[in-house]
Specification:
The chain is an alpha+beta fold. The protein has one domain: TolA/TonB C-terminal domain (2-Layer Sandwich). Helices cover 21% and strands 42% of the residues. The chain contains two helices and five strands; from the N terminus they run αββαβββ. The radius of gyration is 14 Å and the shape is elongated.
């Protein structure tokens, strides 16, 4: 959680859409909804994630996925 968000005791969910390439790397993320205090941290985190790529007829394809990243002070 970003220090400013922690200091302000911000919590909540950031909704994102991410593009996953044929190698399973996240190559782009767009914020759909969520606190500006938390959105940057959510995007930076998702950009580090790796997936098994989607396939079509046995071939890896680029795809988009919807994600929710939850920030909660109770987990700390």
């Amino acid at each position: 959680m970003p220090p400013l968000a922690r200091q302000q005791r911000a919590s909540g969910t950031v909704e994102l859409v991410a593009t996953v390439d044929t190698a399973g790397r996240v190559k782009g993320v767009k914020v759909l909804k969520g606190s500006p205090l938390l959105s940057g941290a959510a995007v930076n985190s998702v950009l580090k994630w790796r997936y098994r790529p989607a396939t079509l007829n046995g071939q890896a394809i680029e795809t988009t996925i919807n994600l929710k990243v939850v920030f909660s002070l109770e987990q700390e």
